[in-house]
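the two lines:
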Amino acid sequence: MSTKPVHRVRHTLLLGALLAILPAAALSAGPDAWIDAYREPASRLVGAALADRFAWHRIAEVTDTFGPRLSGTPALDAAIEWALATMKADGLENVRAEPVMVPRWVRGRESLHVVAPFPRPLVMLGLGGSVGTPADGLEADAIVVSSFDELHQRAADVRGRIVVFDVPYTTYGETVRYRGSGASRAAALGAAAALIRSVGPMGLRTPHTGGLQYAPDAPTIPAAAVSAEDAAALHRLQSRGVRLRLKLTMEARTLPDVDSANVVGEIVGRERPHEIVALGCHYDSWDVGTGASDDAGGCIVTWEAVRLMKRLGLRPRRTVRVVLFTNEENGLRGGLGYRDRHRDQLANHVLMLESDIGLFDLQGFGFTGSDEARTVVNTVASLLNGIGLDRVLPSGGGADIGPSVEAGGIASMSLNSGGDYFLVHHTPADTVDRIDPFNVSRAVGAVAVMAYVIADLPERLGEVAGPSNGR
Amino acid sequence: MSTKPVHRVRHTLLLGALLAILPAAALSAGPDAWIDAYREPASRLVGAALADRFAWHRIAEVTDTFGPRLSGTPALDAAIEWALATMKADGLENVRAEPVMVPRWVRGRESLHVVAPFPRPLVMLGLGGSVGTPADGLEADAIVVSSFDELHQRAADVRGRIVVFDVPYTTYGETVRYRGSGASRAAALGAAAALIRSVGPMGLRTPHTGGLQYAPDAPTIPAAAVSAEDAAALHRLQSRGVRLRLKLTMEARTLPDVDSANVVGEIVGRERPHEIVALGCHYDSWDVGTGASDDAGGCIVTWEAVRLMKRLGLRPRRTVRVVLFTNEENGLRGGLGYRDRHRDQLANHVLMLESDIGLFDLQGFGFTGSDEARTVVNTVASLLNGIGLDRVLPSGGGADIGPSVEAGGIASMSLNSGGDYFLVHHTPADTVDRIDPFNVSRAVGAVAVMAYVIADLPERLGEVAGPSNGR
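prediction for all of em together
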C-alpha cells in the first residue's frame, strides 16, 4: 500500500512548467505542491456550487413534494422513483435501484393523557419499532426517574407503572441510551410502558421520535417520547407528592417486510473505473417530518457533487458513486444490503463518505483512515479554505456506510455539522426552511472537491492499515 | 383634581428631619423628594419578591396541575376553585368568585392533509370560534396568497377553494388581521375554508391558535392555522405549478354558554377603602397549551403583589384588588362582566394595571393617563431602577381591563415585556420552563411597589382628563 502518492514527485518535477501557466499565488513549492494541479477544477466545482441555490431548491422539492419518507411507505417509493428519473435526467451514469427488503413499522393513532391530577392530553411521539398498547389504551400510575441508577434504586416501585425517564439532554450519544434501551430496562422490572424525555435540546414542546431496541430477555412494552417540558412537568408533580396517573394509547405495529431500494448513480472513472469513491446519505426519514436535514439534505449534497462533476466535464480517474440509502432510520437495511450486494467490490472502495448530520454549522470533514491517507486528505481539504471547510477532524463515518466500511476496511469520511441538528432531529420541525442555502452550496462544493480529487489521484488513497489504525 | 400630590410639599418640609434618620444617598432634594418615604416599603417588597422563587413555582403549580384552561372547561373551573382556596389561605381579603357566563367552544378532533401532490398530514390548529367541516372533511384545491391584496387580485380563482394566507409575521398587530378576518374575507369570495400562516415568529413547525371573528355578511367557513414552515412549503409547491389539493377535517363547534367567574381578592385600604387600585390578568388559556405566559404568569405576578403586601403588613391607604379575569381568549366576558358588575365603582378606580404580555424580556410599564399622573408614575417607577424596571412607556392597558378603563375613564397600565412571548403565544409551547424565575420575581417586585405606592398616595393619582388625553 502506498504511503505517499507518486504524483507528488511527478508534480514537483512539473512545478516549473506549472509556474509558467498558473498564477504564482495559487502555488506552493512544498511537499504538497501536487495539489496545485487541482486548484483549477476545485475552483470550478466551488464556483458552480455557489453560483445559485439549486441544491437548496432541490431539498425543498423533495421534502415539499413527498413529505415524510418512512421505509416501506408509498411516499418513499415515489421519492425513489423521482430520484431515479431525475438522476438520469441529470446525466448520471449507471443510475439504478438496488433492491433491499425493509421493515414496515406503522405508527397508527397514538395519544398520551394525564388522568390525574387533572385530565389533559400531552404531546408525544411513539418510538419507532414500539409495540402498541391494548386498543383501549393502557392506564397506570407513573413513576418519574432521572437515570437508570434511580430506576434501579426504585425498582420496587416500578411494577405495573408507566416509567418516565426525565433525563435532560447532554449529548446525543449519552442521552440516546434511554431511547434505545429504556423500555426494556423498565420492562425487566415489571413496568407497563416507558416514556422518555425527548433526545434533543429543549425545543417548543417538541417530541422527538427515534428507534428503540428491545432486549431479547425483557417483555416488549410500548414506549414513546414526550417533550422535555412535559417530562419536567411530570417530574415536578411527582416531587410535590401528587399522584400521577397517565393513559397511553398507541396503535403501533410492525408489518411484514416490504420492497425498497438504494438509489445509485455514478460518474464512471476514466482510467480506473472499478475503483470507487462512494458518497452516501439516507433517503428515508421518520414518518413525523419531512427529514430535510435528516437526511434529504445529505442526499442532495452528495448527489449534487456528482452532478456538478458531470456538468463541468470533470471525469476523474476513478468512479464516483452516490448512494441514496434506504431504511437508515429503522433497520439500516440499505447499508447492510449495499455491503452484501457489493461485497466483492468493497476492496475497490477507495473512500466512503456520508453526509448525515445536517448542514447547519458546517465543521469540515471527519476522517478515519491511515495516517498517510489523512495527510493527503488534509492537503485536499486545504482547497476548501476559501469556503471555510478545510478542517479534517479525527473521526469520520456514518451509519449507512458503516457496514461496508467495517467489512471492507475502507477509509471513511463524514461531512460534519453542528448547530440546530439535534434540535429538529426526528421531529416535525426538520424542514428545509431552517437550512441556509449558502451552507448547502458550501457543502456541495466541499464534497465535490474532496470526492473529485480523491477519485482522481494518480495513486489510490492509502488504505486503512487494519483494526489498530485508531478507528 | 390635584395635579401634584400635596404630600410632596409636606415631604419637602420634612426633609430636614428625614435626612437625620435616612441614609443620605437614598434621598433627593428635588420636587420628587416625596418618594423617599416609599423607599423603605419598596425595598421590603422588592426584597421579599427576590428572596425566593415562590412565584415561579406557583406558575408551575397552576400550569402543571390543571393544564390548559379554556373557558367553560372543568380544568378552568378546578383552577378557579384552587385560586379561591389559595387566595384565602394567603390571607387575602374579600376573596370571591364573581360569576359571568362564558362561551363554550370545543375544538374536537381536527386534521389537515395534503391530498396532492403526495398524501401526508400537516400540523394545524383550528382557530378559536371556527365552525367545523362536514363530518367526513372538506377536500378542495388550494390557492396560496400573500396578502388581502393578492386575494382580491385572484378573486376569480377563489371560489370553492381552500385559501391559504401565507403572510410572514411582522408584528402581532399587523399579522393578526389575517387570523381575525381572513376566513370571512375569503368566504366573501366563495372560498370553502381558510388556512392562515400562524401569527408569530417561525418556531419549530409550531401552529398558533387564536380567535377569529366572522363578519356578519359573509358565509361562516372553517378556519385553521398552519405552521410557518407548512405555509411556505405550500406556497413553494404552488409556485412550481403543482396542483395543490388539501383535506381539512374539523369537529369544531360552539355550545351554549356556561358558568364561569372572575376571581377577586383584596387588601382593603386603611383610609380610603372604597378607592381601588386594580391589578388584572386572565386566568383562562387556549386549550392547546398550559398558558404559562398567556397568562398564568400575569395572574401569579399580580396576585403575588397583593400577597406580599399582606405578608409584610403593608396596608396602603386605598384598596388593592387583584382580579383573575375569565375568558379573555375567546369572548372577553370576564372583562365585560367586571365592568358591568362594578359600573358604579368605576369612578373609584384610581388605576387599573394588567399583566398579559409575558415575563420574558421585561421592559417596565406602559401607562395611559394624564400628564400629571404620568409624572407621579415616573417618580414611583424610579424606585424600580435597581431591578431595571423604571421605564414608563407611552401606552398602557390590557384586554381585560379595557372595558372598565374605557367606561370609567380610568388610568391604565401594563407590565411590558418583549422576548419570546409571540413565539409561544397560543401554542402548546407556552410552558413555565422557558420563563426565568428571576424575571418573575422582578415583575412581582415591580408590580407590588407600583401598586402599593399608587394606592398609598395621600392624594389620589390624577384621573384621566378625558378623551383628548392622548390615549
